[in-house]
Every structure is written in structure tokens, then in C-alpha cells.
Amino acid sequence: MTTNGKLVHLKIRRQDGPSSDSYVEEFEVPYRPSMNIISALMEIRKNPVNKDGKETSPVQWESVCLEEVCGACSILVNGKPRQACSTLIDSLEQPIHLAPLKTFSCERDLIVNRKQMFDALMKVKAWIDIDGTHDLGPGPRLAEEDRQWAYELSKCMTCGLCFEACPNVNDRSTFIGPAPLSQVRLFNTHPTGKMQASKRLESIMIEGGITSCGNSGNCAEVCPKEIPLTHSIAAMNKSTTAYSFKRFFVK
Q1: Which end of the chain is more exposed for a tag (fewer CB within 10 A), N or C?
Q2: How do beta strands 74-77 and 105-108 pair?
Q3: Pairing state of beta strands 105-108 and 111-113?
Q4: pLDDT grade for 2, boundaries at 50, 70 and 90
Q5: Omega into 95 within 30° of 0, i.e. cis?
């Protein structure tokens, strides 16, 4: 149902495949109060007709939770990295320009391949090893003071927006990105995760690690979960410095 016949004007950068040239296609969809970007894309999927009245293929995008938890629907909205599910039409200037994230390779339309980010998380061992042979019972407890800030770091949903905003993440740099550095801090704080703390620190002390961060602060500005990424990076600078001295003097 429209409101006084109001329409939403979208200009979407599309791409038919990884090796295809990109192009812009315009659409107009019925407006509804409290409408978000995903709602507009669903309207196009229901009726894939562009602004010129020509039938076209439905726009492809990713989404899972629709409540800013999964991180899958990251795109550029009017040039800014945003989550499509939590970006409301009423807050945007029209026409609304939608495009895939530029940091990652485009698979099709608004879908990108985030392998670069997940490879970086594997590189820093962003997990806690367990053998899985038997129930270990409840894990060790964190001090409440540590739990409060560690919980904030655990909100990371690997959306990739910090990668998109970071000027040091590009095809000319080996920088692993802000989120993996923050995850090192998170897992090295965990009582069980500390068993591999040295391996994680060493993984961010090589080329492309902590020293490749330019401290622009863009990552914290765009994080939809408001994770204190710059604080984590500062803490990792301190930890790697202390570890390097310890490694030098303690053989």
C-alpha cells in the first residue's frame, strides 16, 4: 500500500557476474512508512520492472536475519557502507544509490565475496580450540570488569564495513583489517583462549599486521555495533610491544 502514491527512487549498480562489466539500473517502488532498504529490494524482486517500464532480472543481494545480527546485507548506500536491514528509507536523500562494497570482489549485483576477511580471521586464530571428545562443562568465568568490555567485542558480526571504510585495506596492502585485530584482543582475554595468545600475537606482528594500521579511526565510525575497534587496536599495540620485549629477553 502506498502513501499518497509516493515512490522510492533507486539507482542500483548491477553486475551480472564476477567478470562482467557493471552498469546502473534505476527503479521506482511503492513507498511505505518505516521502510528499509531490504523492503525496497523485495519490492523489486516481486515486480522486476525498471524505471523505464522494461522487465529485467531481479536484483541479487544477501540477507539472513533482517535485524542487524548476521552482517550479510552490507552494501554502499549513497556512497556510505551501511547495513541494508537497518537503513531506513526516510533517513536517506533520493534518488538512493545502492552499490556493492568496493573492498571485496563482486559476485553479482550487491553480493560480494568476503573471503579476504574470513582468511584474515583464520590467520589470527579467531577461535578457541577444544578437542570435542567430551563435555568440558562450564568454562572459566571472566572478571565482571573484563566481561563487560569483552562482550562489546563479541558483538562483531563480520559484516565487513570496517574493511570497506579502512583506507589501509586495499589491493596494494597486505593489512589484515580492523576486525581481526579486535578479535585477537577478545580471544586473548578469554581464560581458555589465553593458551594460544602468543600465536595470535605473533600472527599480527608480521607484515600486514598491527603496524599496517594507519589509525584513521574510520572503522569505529562505521561499525553498526559501535564496537570500540580503535581501543582494541591500541590495546594490541601495547600487547605486541610487551610480547616482543618478553620474547627478546626470555628464551
Answers
A1: C
A2: unpaired
A3: antiparallel
A4: very low
A5: yes
Dihedral sign for Cα 82, 84, 90, 95, please.
positive
Element (H, E) at 205: none
Other CB atoms within 10 Å distance of the CB of residue 122: 12
Which is more confident, 161 or 250?
161
Give the sign of the dihedral formed by CA 33, CA 35, CA 41, CA 43.
negative
**Ordered structural domains, the chain, with CATH:** 7-113 (3.10.20.30), 115-249 (1.10.1060.10)
User: CA–CA separation, 98 vs 10, rounded Å?
Assistant: 7
Give the per-residue pLDDT at 134: 73
* Residue partners of 123: CB distance under 8 A and separation at least 6: 176, 180, 203
**Whole-number mean pLDDT of the chain?**
94
169 burial via Cβ count (<10 Å: 0-12, 13-18, 19+): buried
H or E element at residue 73: none
User: How far apart are alpha carbons 178 and 213 in whole angstroms?
Assistant: 8
- With H, G, I as helix, E, B as strand and everything else as coil, classify residue 197: helix
Q: Does pLDDT of 1 surpass 60? A: no
DSSP state of 195: G
